[in-house]
């Protein structure tokens, strides 16, 4: 299992709402017409649909080609996590301890004078 890249900060800004993932409950309708809703699983993951992270693209954090914080994030996402398709472990975004996350879609990058704002979504696995 991969971990969050230690050369990349974890100062996340949670934008907007986050909540429990959908489709983890099931409704059964009995012949009497009564309905009963229950969880399909005991674990319902959280979805964080809008997270921002400020990454420095000037400050050198390691030797080599991918030497800045931003380049380390891109390398980790694209190569280590195979474009975000593999899950990874990091601190929980809404509690204590660690959790397993997976990217929801491709990160978006906005650049301004050496700082890159990365926006993405995560889903707890």
Task: Write a concise keyword list for the protein shown above.
125 residues; mainly beta; single chain; two-stranded antiparallel sheet; 9 strands; seven-stranded mixed sheet; 1 helix; 10% helix
Can you walk me through this structure?
By secondary structure, the chain is mainly beta. The chain has one domain (2-124). It is 10% helix and 45% strand. The strands form 2 sheets. Strands 1, 2, 3, 6, 7, 8 and 9 form a 7-stranded mixed sheet that branches. It has a two-stranded antiparallel ribbon with strand order 4-5. A hairpin with a 2-residue loop joins strand 8 and strand 9. It is elongated. The relative contact order is 0.24.
Write the layout of secondary structure elements.
Elements: E1 2-3, E2 13-14, E3 19-20, E4 25-29, E5 35-39, E6 46-56, H1 69-80, E7 88-91, E8 98-112, E9 115-124
Parallel strand pairs: 1-7
Antiparallel strand pairs: 2-6, 3-6, 4-5, 6-9, 7-8, 8-9
Point out poorly predicted stretches.
none
H-E order: EEEEEEHEEE
| Arithmetic mean of pLDDT | 88
User: What portion of residues belong to β-strands?
Assistant: 35-45%
- Which structural class best describes the helix and strand composition? mainly beta
The main β sheet shows up as: 7 strands, mixed
Helical content (DSSP H or I, runs of 4+)? under 10%
- Integer-rounded radius of gyration: 18 Å
Distance separating the two termini: 12 Å
The number of helical elements comes to 1
Shape: elongated
Number of domain units = 1
How many individual β-strands?
9
């Amino acid at each position: 299992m991969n971990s969050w890249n230690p050369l990349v900060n974890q100062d996340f800004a949670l934008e907007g709402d986050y909540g429990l993932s959908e489709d983890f409950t099931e409704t059964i309708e009995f012949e009497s017409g009564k309905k009963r809703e229950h969880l399909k699983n005991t674990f319902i993951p959280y979805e964080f649909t809008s997270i921002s992270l400020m990454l420095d693209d000037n400050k050198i954090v390691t030797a080599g080609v991918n030497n800045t914080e931003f380049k380390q994030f891109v390398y980790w996402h694209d190569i280590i996590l195979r474009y975000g398709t593999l899950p990874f472990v990091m601190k929980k975004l809404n509690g204590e301890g660690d959790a397993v996350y997976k990217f929801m879609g491709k990160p978006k990058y906005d650049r301004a004078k050496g700082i890159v704002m990365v926006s993405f979504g995560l889903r707890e696995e």
